[in-house]
Amino acid sequence: MISYPQIKTVGLSGLLVTFAEKMSSPANRAALAFRAAVVAADWPEVRETSMSLVSVYVVADLVSEDIPKLISKLEGLLAQTDWYAAPLPKGRTLWHVPTVYGTDLAPQLAEAAELAGVDPDTAIQQLSTTRMRVLTIGFAPGQPYMGELGENWNIPRQQDLTKSVPAGALVAAIRQLVVFTAPTPTGWRHVGQTAFHNFRQKAQQPFALTPGDELLFPQVSRQTLQDIMATDASGNGGAERETLP
Amino acid sequence: MSGHLIIHTAGPGSSVQDMGRAGFLAYGLTRGGAADQIALHEAAALLGQSPTHAAIEMVGVGGTFESSVDTVIALTGAEMSASIDGSAVVWHASHSLPKGAKLKIGGVLKGTYGYLSVAGGIDTPQIMGARSTHFKAGIGSVLEPGQTLPLGAATTQRPGFLIAASDRFAGGDIRIVPSVQTDQFSPETLTRFAQTTFRRDARGNRQGVRMDAETDGFFVDGGLSIVSEVITEGDIQVTGDGAPYVLMCECQTTGGYPRIGTVLPCDLARVAQAPVGAPLRFRFVTVDEAREVEIKSRAEIKALAGRAKPLVRDPHDISDLLSYQLVSGAVSATTDPFAE
After folding, report:
1. Which terminus of chain A has a smaller tally of CB atoms within 10 A, N or C?
2. What is the reported pTM?
3. Which residue range or ranges hold the Carboxyltransferase domain (chain A) (predicted)?
């Protein structure tokens, strides 16, 4: 029986603090809050940090740093509070991202609804009103993995890959949603289409989302989305944003 | 002095590369940069400039290049045939490239990634703090015929210097440290892994290099489902078919396959440069040994600046001998290339 959190070295590039064996909301919140605490601690030996679903990666030069000393610093921070019960960090954003469900723009909505045990209209109602939190960003620049949909959306990935879905595709599997950064082959089902750009490489702020941000995907008509695609230069794809308290 | 470099032709994988972008892992973007960073340090030593200058990375095949101004180039990394206006020039060296002269770089002779550096560096606009093309992230793109690349102002002109390149172009022994899932492989599997001579598979690029072997796959006993977590350059992932992949500079930031070990940073250029079919063996060392090895390697890179030597040529072959300035532009051997 392994006890968590645990700390391991990642090659010579840093340390990994893992909060659980599997994805769970408390472990994800722990990783989110702990990463924010490491950033706030501003230790000189920490070069950067990142989080995945239930772990935090602390980048440090393990060639020149005293590894046991850095581990004990992290252990000290871990001991300060119950990270699994930590509140979400301040300054998060809630995005409302206009989304077309179904149609030829998102052809797997009906199939996904059937797997989720609901009719397509109910599926759209559930997908467009569930507030999703960015659990982690990865795979491609700025690409969010968001959770978590209701139990009925614990649908598996399809066995065969879809050759490619476009950038901005909203895809679903295992109670999560992803908006793809770039055209991507995927086993997740394409349920919606947005004009939201996760990654804007020439912008002052190249990444739209940060772990912990929340998103809603309200339904719009195909025509509305096409108008947005034709006119939006910001990358927001018609999305409105509000700051969460 | 500044001008531009004209790309007449370039191999299909050619791109502008520097040391890459740090600080964006949290947003899903790995560092990228030159696949063989030692080659950029060698070029900097030859040209007497900073290793942070951008260069052209060529994969297996070179190209034809021309400068709009008199300049100096350095050729490092995988050895390729090269000529300037038809006269062969040596690799691992710096050469004058007069305005309008045609620099032709042919196929690779030894290794995989060759580098063309220019005095002053390639001065394309920075995107998120670097000039590196990151193919996976869609930043930048391959070089196209007819394209021109701006050159930075050169602070030194040092043609006619040669450097002894470290031996890293034919595979060999690669040192690794245990990784996050190493202890989940059985001791027998780990022993067999360390005893196997792999061959670099043709499936390899800036994201990862597949290792081929005449043996069973290297599976974790009893299967394993890993929640997706951070992966880094140098990690050796074992994918579904049991074959190891060494992750390279453009790998993804997270992954779910078990990792059997992690290549030491100083041995990673040897993996990158191993030609298809070259033998590679992986040898576990402890973290303490790895630290010692890495400290020594960093010291060697720091010392490169003082190791460029004048190319020994017959003075009769040098028509403009008196115009050579062989002593200027020496850079400090104490400059720390890792300083940020």
Report:
1. N
2. 0.91
3. 5-209
Residue with tokens 């994805």: A23
Domain interval for residue A107: 93-243
pLDDT in tens, A42-94: 999 999 999 999 999 999 999 999 999 999 999 999 999 999 999 998 889 99
Half-sphere exposure of A132 (CA within 13 A, CB side): 32
Q: A11–B295: do the CB atoms touch at under 8 Å? A: no
Tell whether A187 and A113 lie within a shared domain.
yes
Q: Say if A186 falls within a structural domain.
A: yes
- The model's confidence at residue B144, banded by pLDDT at 50, 70 and 90, is very high
CB contact under 8 A, A9 and B287: yes
> How far is B210 from B236, CA to CA, in rounded Å?
9
Same domain, A159 and A234: yes
One domain for residues A153 and A173: yes
A·B CB contacts under 8 A: 123
Backbone angles phi, psi at B331, to 5 degrees: -110, 160
- CATH number of the domain within which A81 lies: 3.30.1360.40
Residues of B in contact with A181 (CB under 8 A): 28
Say whether both A57 and A97 belong to one domain.
no
Are residues A176 and A219 located together in one domain of the fold?
A: yes
Q: What is the dihedral of CA A70, A71, A73, A76, to 10 degrees?
A: 180
